Amino acid sequence: MKEVTMTRPNLFLKIFLCFWLTVIATAVAVVITFIVEPRSVPSQWHATLTDTAQSSGMIAAAMYEQGGKPSASAYIERIAQETHLKACLLDATANAIAGKDCASFRDMTTRVIATLATSRASSFNMKYGIARVALVVKGQSGRDYIFATELPAGPRAVVGIHRGAAILQWSVALCVSGLICYLLARYLTAPILQLREASQQLAGGNLSTRAAPAISLRKDELGDLVRDFNSMAMRLEELISRQRQLISDVSHELRSPLARLNVALDLGRERKGSDPAFDHMEEDLGLLDEMIGRLLTIAKLDMSAPQVPMTSVDVTALVRQVVRNAEFESREATGGVRMLVEGQCFVHGNAELLQSAIENVVRNAIRYSEPGTSVEVSLTCDGSFTRLTVSDHGPGVPETELSRIFEPFYRVKDARDRQSGGAGLGLAIAERVIRIHGGTIRAENASPHGLQIEMVLPQPAKE
User: Fold this and answer.
1) Going by DSSP bridges, is the β-strand pair 122-127/130-138 parallel, antiparallel, or unpaired?
2) Which of 201, 234, 196, 200 minimizes the C-alpha distance to 215?
3) Closest by alpha carbon to 330, among 289, 379, 373, 287?
4) Catalytic: which of 46, 84, 162, 252?
5) In this predicted structure, what is the pLDDT of residue 121?
6) How far is CA 182 from CA 19, 160, 212, in A?
7) CA 348, 351, 357, 362 torsion: positive or negative?
8) pLDDT at 400
9) What local confidence, expressed as pLDDT, does residue 157 receive?
10) Could you give the CA distance from residue 354 to residue 362 in angstroms, rounded to a whole number?
11) What is the pTM of this model?
12) Fewer Cβ in 10 A, N or C end of the chain?
């Protein structure tokens, strides 16, 4: 495994090479624009370079008149050796007198000859950061010569050549580097974002979620991460599926001995007559039967949620029915149930499951409300969401445990223990029902005390 990791091109190397190539590509782009962009030297540098060429040309002409062609050639050769730039001395008809590769100045000398009759003309251009000058110089004898030379413009001249050219260079550099960095960012963040989305789906209960298979084919750290994530998700799905199947199987198996216990209880009453012990046994058997029924409901919701049939459900009528039943059952223990309804609300769902979820939440609020206090049920809909809020006036729940009260068999140790009734399954069923319907459920402590549970369901789109 260690050898494979060493030979694999890792993410660090990819990032390093991409940034390095970005710098190289940016430099190449600037050089290309520098080469292909026609440039002109500003007037202050134009005058300085022209004066320099004029001075060198007059010296070359004087050397030619005094020592002939060998003297002029020696001077121009010395210029070439010192500056590594070309220079040529030509007569008034552009015939070369001294210098090498004078044909490269032909276009410039032709322009100078064309304007020689009208002015002391010069020709000037800029290429690759080198100034090229061709101008007329007069020898000591009064004879006209043409001197053509290359001169280093210097970095300040290159910088100040042309504002538009500088803008073009920087624009090309920014575009090239920006494009490469954008592609690199997409290359690095796209799999991370897809992995994050898969993680959110997995956390939301979709255990069949897997990260994109294309990412798992990568031969770097991100590919390893995705493969590990998919292995983890597969293992989680297997373990939780086994757990759910176990709960379902055990619950089914408990029904048979529970039924036999109820028969034995009836036989005991026939033989021994009425006895308070039989009443306690019957109550415990009823609680056990209810718990098994709820366990089966949870197992069914977890294992077959996608197959739940759904239609348009009148939530307002459903809530009114639940409130009427709960108020009748709790009138002696609490101050009743108050309901506030705004509008007629409909959702796309399963009426039986929604009724079960709402009943569990309302009965849970009634169970923990203090004597003489009422439970408030509020239903609102705004065209996009249906919001149902159930508030009690009980002891509430510690803030650190609010997110756990929707777990099966979970009860708060202090206030909401087994003596208060229930087995910690009602809110777990409500959470699964709301999740199946694409909604959310959350709990928060009310002020000054009590617990408030809010259920939000999406409303069907209007046609």
Assistant:
1) antiparallel
2) 196
3) 373
4) 252
5) 62
6) 11, 31, 22
7) positive
8) 82
9) 46
10) 12
11) 0.48
12) C
Residue stretches of the chain with pLDDT short of 50? 1-8, 38-39, 41, 155-161, 415-419
Q: For residues 395 and 368, is the Cβ–Cβ distance under 8 A?
A: yes
Q: Does the CA dihedral 102-105-110-111 come out positive or negative?
A: negative
Residue carrying the six token digits 């959310």 = 440
333: Cβ–Cβ under 8 A, 6 or more apart, which residues?
Answer: 366, 371
- Is 348 considered catalytic here? no
- Compute CA distances 124 → 59, 61, 75, 374, whole Å: 20, 20, 22, 97
- 416's tokens: 């909401």
Backbone angles phi, psi at 14, to 5 degrees: -65, -45
Rounded to the nearest 10 degrees, what angle do helices 351-368 and 315-330 cross at? 40
Q: Which residues of 23-61 are buried (b: 16+ CB within 10 A; e: fewer)?
A: eeebeebbeebbeebebebeeebbebbbeebbebbbbbb
Does the N-terminal peptide bond of residue 460 adopt cis geometry, omega within 30 degrees of 0? no
- In 56-204, at which residue ranges do the beta strands (DSSP E only) sit? 87-91, 96-99, 122-127, 130-138, 144-152
| Tokens coding 397 | 């729940």
Q: What is the pLDDT of residue 158?
A: 44
